[in-house]
Amino acid sequence: MTMPVMQFRVTATGLQPYSDLDWELLERYKVGSIVTVNVVQKKNLGRLRLYWAILRDVVPNTEYPDAETLSNVLLLNTKRVKGWSATGGREVMIAQNISTMSEQDFALYFEEAMGVIYTEWGIDIDQLRRKWTNAGKIEDIPE
């Protein structure tokens, strides 16, 4: 039987169900039951939106046709590779998918990718961050 995913908030004393639905789902378990929990932190959506907004702004300064292609190039440049594929007698790197990264990994990758953009194209990343966060289009990204 597959159980739905529940969300919890970390408190000083442990984990607390996040919503009424999460409380309801948790009540299905008898008090004292031992359960296995796979802890995954959701991605910071503000950081993810900022990433794509910055890439869309950077694309015209590169030889790449769109933000998705630039993202793949940045993933490969920062060694975010999920595997290799052999085609025609040569090996080809396959970029990791951002959706498979944890929030911590994505935060680290984000900063490394911004460094590559600055190094390769001389684009002021801080200016682009301010453009999007000051415009109120993307909420501030907590550290």
Tally of helical segments: 5
Beta-strand fraction estimate: 5-15%
Q: Can you summarize the main beta sheet?
A: 2 strands, antiparallel
| CATH topology assignment of the largest domain | NinB fold
Q: Report the top-level CATH class of the largest domain.
A: Mainly Alpha
Strand order in the sheet with the most strands: 1-2
Radius of gyration: 20 Å
How far apart lie the N and C ends? Answer: 38 Å
H-E string: EEHHHEEHH
The assigned structural class equals: alpha+beta
What does the model show?
The structure is a single chain. By secondary structure, the chain is an alpha+beta fold. The protein has two domains: 1-39, no CATH class; 45-134, NinB fold, CATH 1.10.3790. It has helices at 20-26, 45-58, 67-77, 103-121, 125-134; strands at 8-11, 14-17, 81-87, 90-95. Strands 1-2 form a two-stranded antiparallel ribbon. Helix 2 (45-58) crosses helix 5. The longest helix is centred in the C-terminal third of the chain and has 19 residues, at 103-121. The protein starts with 7 loop residues before the first strand and ends in a 9-residue tail after the last helix.
Keywords, separated by commas or semicolons:
single chain; 143 residues; alpha+beta; NinB fold; 2 domains; two-stranded antiparallel sheet; 5 helices; 43% helix
In a few lines, what is going on in this structure?
The chain is an alpha+beta fold. It contains 5 helices and 4 strands; from the N terminus they run E-E-H-H-H-E-E-H-H. 43% of the residues lie in helices and 15% in strands.
